[in-house]
Amino acid sequence: MELTGWRGSLYHYMDWALKLAYLNILWLVGIIIGVGIAGFFPSTMAMFSVLRKWTQEEEEELKVFAHFKNEYKKEFLQSNKYGYSWAVLGLIIYVDLQFFRGIPTIWALIVSLFFFILAAIYIVALLYAFPVYVQYKLTLKQYFRNCLLIVLSNPLFSVLMVLGFYFPYYLMIKIPGLLPFFGGSLISLVLMVISNKMFTNLAKNNKTVTEKGI
Questions:
Q1: For 48, what's the count of Cα atoms within 13 Å in the CB-facing half-sphere?
Q2: Nearest 10 degrees: CA dihedral of 167, 170, 172, 175?
Q3: Which of 73, 82, 147, 175 could form a disulfide with 125 if both were Cys (CB 3.0 to 4.6 A apart)?
């Protein structure tokens, strides 16, 4: 018998809480198995892959552990290559920004402003990195290009992504006891939900353009 009213709502939210806690534990185990530096990116990718299935209402047939394990193993090398490419890019931007900030000239100030804007774009694009990775099958170059284009062409969704990261993160800081159970999965869920809305809009826009072209 299906529960209705407040009991149904409570059951629904408790069910999601348990699923997110379980997924977060799998994420942490995946990171540990990869000894941290080699496990973070494949484990995060596998978590987003599960969340993509859940948020697209495919969870009835999803065996979470098996799917997580398969994605972790299958994408281990590629996700590390992808993730560390983002890390290196971020490091380059950070070093350049700090370098030019230390030069007391007008031209250096202008260049610093450029790198500051670039850093802001990079941070927002980084929020899209794994949702885009699990949604599409692209080359490494295409992933970076698409993340950049999404940030620049969808400012509203970009703002929502920043807020979607900030509020769960703020909650975790205020209630540290939640970190072992929701530290990664809750933030990732919010980012995946917003990204799915954006992906749907992109698909509709592409369809409209195609129909007009025909």
A1: 27
A2: -120
A3: 147
Q: In the structure encoding, which two tokens stand for residue 105, read together?
A: 């000239």
Residues 6+ apart with CB under 8 A from 54: 19, 62, 189
Q: Is the dihedral of CA 44, 83, 87, 93 positive or negative?
A: negative
Pairwise CA distance, residues 26 & 158, whole Å? 28
Residues 115, 93: Cα–Cα separation, whole Å: 7
* Cα distance between residue 47 and residue 37, in whole Å: 16
And the tokens for 2? 């299906």
Asked whether 164 and 191 are in contact (CB, 8 A), the reply is: yes
Q: Is 53 within 8 Å of 59 (Cβ atoms)?
A: yes
pLDDT per residue as tens, the chain (214 positions)? 455 666 667 777 898 999 999 999 999 999 999 988 999 999 999 999 999 999 886 546 789 999 999 999 999 999 999 999 999 999 999 999 999 988 889 999 999 999 999 999 999 999 999 999 999 999 999 999 999 999 999 999 999 999 999 999 999 999 999 999 999 999 999 999 999 999 998 888 775 533 444 3
Measured over the CA atoms of residue 99, residue 105, residue 108 and residue 114, the dihedral's sign is positive
